[in-house]
Each structure stands twice: as C-alpha cells, then as structure tokens.
Amino acid sequence: MLDQLEQLKQEAVKEIAAVESLETLNDLRVKYLGKKGPMTEIMKQMGKLSAEERPKVGAVANEVREQLTSAIQEKQEELGAAEIKKQLANETIDVTLPGTTVKEGTAHLLTQVIEEIEDLFIGMGYTIAEGPEVEKDYYNFEALNLPKDHPARDMQDSFYITENTLLRTQTSPVQARVMEQHDFANGPIKIICPGKVYRRDNDDATHSHQFTQIEGLVVDENITLADLKGTLTVLAKKMFGEERDVRLRPSFFPFTEPSVEMDISCFKCGGEGCRVCKGTGWIEILGSGMVHPNVLEMSGIDSKKYSGFAFGMGPERVAMLKYAVDDIRHLYTNDLRFTKQFSVKE
C-alpha cells in the first residue's frame, strides 16, 4: 500500500504541474482527493491492515494528501495570477493613442432666438414671467375679453383637458395672472412671457399644432401707442438690422383696443419688393395694441388711471425670416444636418 501511495503521489503531482486551466485543476482535485478518488479508497482499506502497519500507512497517506492539497493550492494561485496578467494585458489602454473627440451640443435655433429677445427686453427693464401650460378657460379666454360665446374663440378652441381647462393657446394668460396679482406700489408692470402654446392648426410648412410665443405687457400711468411703437422699433432693429423701418396697420384683437399689426421693411430687398415680402416691400412680424379697458378692469386695475400696451410674436416666425428657414417643421424634427447650421450665436 505504501508503494501504491508513492505511485499515486508521483502521478498526481505530474498531472497538477502540467495543468493549464483552473477548471481542469478543479477536475484533478476531485479526481484524486474527492469522495470517490484513490486517496479515499486507500483510507477505506486501512481497517484491513495489521495494528503495526496501520500507523505507518496512515502517516504516509496523510502526508501524501497534504502534499497534493498544497500542490493544488500553489497551482491555483499560479493560474489565477496568470489569468489576471492576461486580462490586464488585453485591457491595457494605450495612452499615446489620440483621444475620442467629445461632440459638444449647442442651443437650438429657437432657444437662441428666444434668449436673444429675452436679453433685449431685460436690458430695457422687463422681467420674464411664466405660467402653466395647462390653463383654466377663465385665464385663457374670459379674463382676456373673450367670453364663452365670443366668435373669436372658434379659431383657438383646441385641446381641452376638461370642460374648463385646456392647453393654453397663447401666453396671454400669464399677463392676466400678473395683472391680477400686481401691486402698483411696487412699480409698473413690464414683463415678457415666453413659452409653448397649442392650437388646432394644420401641420404644414408654416403652421404647427405646437409652437412657441413671446408676449410682452407694459401697464402704468400715461402709457400710449407711441410707447408701443418705440418699443417695437427697438425690437425690429435689434433682430433684423438697424436700417429697418416699422409701420403699424390697424387690426382687431379682442384684448386690445386699438389693435395693430406691425410690419418691418423687407430685409431682403430693402423695401423694393421681392419673393420674401411677396412684392410689397413689407413683412408682417407681430400683433399688438393698447390693452383693452375690459381686460384691465377684470384684473382689478383702474382703466381710467392706468393704461398699457401688449404685443405677441412667434419666435418660429422670427427665426424663419432671420435665417431663411423655409419650413417650420425643420425646427421640430431634430435633424442634426439642420440644427448644426446654427451652432454659433450671431
């Protein structure tokens, strides 16, 4: 039996030394030291030995078991270290290689236009006011001199959430809310209201069911139409060039009286007439007017003491005219070929 143990040790040590994977090494451990392995079989036969042979064989068997266990552990550490070394070699980063360029984003064209307009009006002492996009019918219509049976509602009755709430069709409700809460002891009202609005429009080259709007409002004592024209002239020259002329045409809006449309001289032809201005020499930009007394009174403002003007423009229209964008849908499709053209502010 001693010869059998010696032969087993030599055979096992040789196999352990030649093994090249942890999986195979584990198979050898089971093969030689497992419950059905030769070492276990030898230990089971110890009972058949004489009292003199049993201690000698037992001592050798334990020694062989310890040697094999130690050999397996050493080989396991060796293979583990080799595997880690191989993994590190495969995952090594070559720091001399050129790095991957991280592409920087840029503000969307609409965002650039809105921020440019905001900067202009903040410089003139205005503040930016915001309000909810899901608005009450009262603030979206009634507080703006559009009662429930008013025919002008037809073109704006759009996306209702409940009978008395809808997606706002304009940012004018923000003006109504500001006027309702304002205390003139703190000074006049001078605000602009940028934000998204929603209307039941056909989606085509010049219309969208969702778009952005910037409205402005000034309310104080002795505000006149001349103040409105002066303000809009500054806006036109800032956005389209110092050489722009401005004209106001009579119009109708339920929340202003008198109401006017503002045109600017065509920046393409200088007023001579071209395809952009449809041969007229003028381009319509926005609607405006003096705040209707009913709107002031519904907000708790004395219309005999205070007056004001309001205006509203679409940043999409400004962007399309200023940058010669021929389809409003380009502003919403997230096509990088389009948006990359406007990566630098003017």
UniProtKB/TrEMBL annotation:
Catalytic activity: tRNA(Phe) + L-phenylalanine + ATP = L-phenylalanyl-tRNA(Phe) + AMP + diphosphate + H(+)
Database matches in Pfam families: Phe_tRNA-synt_N, tRNA-synt_2d
Keywords, ordered alphabetically: Aminoacyl-tRNA synthetase, ATP-binding, Coiled coil, Cytoplasm, Ligase, Magnesium, Metal-binding, Nucleotide-binding, Protein biosynthesis
Keyword Repeat attributed: no
Coiled-coil spans in chain: 65-92
Superkingdom of origin organism: Bacteria
Cofactor(s), by name: Mg(2+)
Amino acids binding Mg(2+): E257
EC number: 6.1.1.20
SUPFAM superfamilies to which the protein is assigned, alphabetical: Class II aaRS and biotin synthetases, tRNA-binding arm
Cofactor note: Binds 2 magnesium ions per tetramer.
Listed InterPro entries: aa-tRNA-synth_II, aa-tRNA-synth_II/BPL/LPL, Phe-tRNA-synth_IIc_asu, Phe-tRNA_ligase_II_N, Phe_tRNA_ligase_alpha1_bac, Phenylalanyl-tRNA_Synthase, tRNA-bd_arm
Subcellular location: Cytoplasm
PANTHER family: PHENYLALANINE--TRNA LIGASE, MITOCHONDRIAL, PHENYLALANYL-TRNA SYNTHETASE
Oligomeric and partner information: Tetramer of two alpha and two beta subunits.
NCBIfam families in the record: pheS
Family: Belongs to the class-II aminoacyl-tRNA synthetase family. Phe-tRNA synthetase alpha subunit type 1 subfamily.
Protein name: Phenylalanine--tRNA ligase alpha subunit
Annotated source species: Listeria newyorkensis
